[in-house]
Structures are given as C-alpha cells and as structure tokens.
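User: Structure please.
Assistant: Input sequence and predicted structure:
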Amino acid sequence: MIVAEIYKDKSGKMSGFSISGHANTAPHGYDIYCAGVSTLTQSALLCIKNHLKRDITFEAEHGILNMKLKTPPDDLTEAVFQTMTVGLVEIEKLAPQAVKLKFVKK
C-alpha cells in the first residue's frame, strides 16, 4: 500500500509530504496507481523547487519520496500542494486498497 502523509503547519497550510510504499496492483512498471502518485508528488516537488524557487529538503529513494519546505508555506506553495492533493484524493477513491492519504499537523 502507498501511504501519503500531507503535512500541515499550525495555520493549516501544507508544508510538505511523505510518500512510502507501493500499490502492488500490477507488475513493477505497469502499476497505474504508483505512476499516478509518483507523477503528482514529483511534479509538486519539482514545481516548488525549480519554478517557485523555494528552499526545501527532500529524500527520494525506491518507494519513498519525502519533501518539506524550509520556509513557511505561502499562497503559491499552497496552490501546488492543493493541486497535488486533489489528484491524490481521487486516486485514493479509485483504489482505497492501494492508496491511503493522511493529513498530519507538524
């Protein structure tokens, strides 16, 4: 199962995420749920880092992607995180046996 934790700060804005696991609904390289989660989360990370030029920490390994803002979230980072989250919620609806989304206050 893929577990996606979305971090929220005390103001309620998203400040990062942690993704771990595999959906295991198809052979490696053919799992659309893994591909969807990977695409959404990697796009959010790259947008925040390269387009918005925000300072972040991240870890990317097989089956793991963690990202955290080093500075407080703002309206632009929130828009990126919200877009990512909308997609993750829809994937979770399609495959609740493969994807679990959690919101964590940090």
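Strands lie at 2-8, 14-20, 56-61, 64-69, 99-105.
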